[in-house]
Amino acid sequence: MTDLFFFLDILVAFRTTFADMETGEEVFNSKQAAMSYLKSRFIIDFVSTVPVDTIAELITGESKPELKLFSLLKLVRVTRLGKMIAKMNVTQYVKNILKLLQLFFYVIMYLHCAGCLWYVIVSQDKKWHPALDLLRNDFSLYERTIAY
User: Fold this and answer.
1) Which residues, 6+ apart, have CB-to-CB distance to 14 below 8 Å?
2) 67-124, pLDDT tens digit by residue?
3) With contact defined as beta carbons under 8 Å apart, do 19 and 26 qualify?
4) Best CA proximity match to 101, nearest among 119, 123, 82
5) Domain spans of the chain, in order of start
6) What is the pTM of this model?
7) Which of 83, 46, 53, 57 is nearest to 67 (CA)?
8) Do 48 and 80 touch, CB atoms closer than 8 A?
């Protein structure tokens, strides 16, 4: 679903107006808008949307985990949310709500990436070491009460 939405975003970006850098005026010409998009951020958008790892697996018949890193480029696209919110033609109240949702989304993305990093770190050893309490068979540690 994410790839579908990003693909639709690419299609919309080809038709979206932009501000001319020299004059500061908004350009409504669709050919100029498409050329501007191709010159600016199209490559990152395209590479992050196309499932490079799946295509490579279909061609070669083997999975390469290094190619899954191309999907991290989706995070670059998400960082543009702040600019989009700032340029929206809505009340400040709605912008503040959207900024709060954006912050919530960034926290979720950070936690997800931290969890993935912990998974990679733990999966390198492939050996589980139990807690010291289990080695000593000292299960009463959790049953004791603290006396003042």
Assistant:
1) 30, 33, 34, 37
2) 777 777 777 777 777 887 887 788 999 999 999 999 998 899 899 989 988 888 878 8
3) yes
4) 82
5) 1-78, 91-148
6) 0.56
7) 53
8) no
